[in-house]
Amino acid sequence: MQEDFLHFIWKYKRFQSKALKTVEGSFINIISLGQHNHNAGPDFFNSQLEIDGQKWAGNVEIHIKSSDWYVHNHEKDEAYDNVILHVVWEHDTEIFRKDNTEIPTLEISNYVDKTLFNNYKSLLNSKTWINCESDIGSIDDFKFNSWLERLYIERLERKSTEIEQLLQESKNDWEAVLFKMLLKNFGLKVNGEPFKSLANSVDYSIVRKVKTNQTDIEALLFGQANLLEDEVEDMYVQDLQKRYSFLKQKFGLENRGVMPLQFFRLRPPNFPTIRLSQLAVLYATYSNLFSEVIQLQAKENFYELFQIETSEFWETHYTFSKTSKKVKKKLSKPFIDLLLINTILPVKFSYLKFKGKMDDQSIFQLIKSIKIENNGIVNKFLELRPMEKSAMTSQGLIQLKTEYCDKNKCLQCAVGNQLIAKK
């Protein structure tokens, strides 16, 4: 038994509410259950009750046992002086406020359907990949899809926290925020953190000054990433080294905090050298990339925006020191999809929220047009029930698994709620 279960019972009124009596025998009529408090203090604020015809307004506190009131030292805390009802699963002692007045107690286990409690125990005691693995397929499509939409917005809200921090650090420079987010996600999973440290090593005001020249911004990125330290007999590389030396002296650049970039076990098209060159070309191509990103709506428009290649040198190289067969290295559509999912949509969401112009439908329209992601979590869920094959589904499922299933938050989950309440 967890207190969360009792919170669930009270919040959603999953008990027989007629003929309620306190353990002292007083009749209870619930006018308002109150507002669930997730912070310090009583569990439900602003509840309204009638006890033996006397109207009360105040807070409700919930415990497994009545004696937990004293275990938590509530009798010494003024925040609990306004508690008008103590709701418990098991009544084992009378409780009193700080001024020694007794608080009415409701032993709610007497009014809860045993099927509800058994469903709860069965779900939480499951040893499968997710608690509801055998029953998730029974949830109707409308309820499940609506829950995934909510989960996707939750995921965007979580990502927006990082973006809001970047915005504050950059003094509301959205171009700087986009640059840092893009650079991090150009590194994908393996080089995401090293690319993030690279982005943090140089102020965007410097990027803004040099990005009009493609070779200059390449020199800046490669130099800050510690990739220009070896002697290479190639005019392009030597030019980059000279340019970076000039930029380093001019702007007082430091790169000691940049994490080492990883090449091992990466496919050559994902080598950090290729990704940095592509990013440099992108910024040299668009003078106001953030404005371009915000005004575009359709996936096809973004595919066109990101139709970029590396500079010429990288058509015949994957590293500085070794030549390879000539091939133009464009951003692939699957890679652009990842940029849309992990960078563009979170930035657009945060910007609309910042401006007070939130438009969920435009966000949903774009994310639903992107193919579903291919990973272990998503593929396992697809084995359990049929679903819409879009990136909104995969993002919602990742949020569901990591923030609910893995943390046993069935009581806060729409799927868990329905399964617990089933007859």
Automatic annotation (TrEMBL):
Short name of one Pfam family: DUF2851
Superkingdom of this protein's organism: Bacteria
Matches recorded under InterPro entries: DUF2851 (IPR021272)
Protein name: DUF2851 family protein
Protein's organism: Winogradskyella litorisediminis
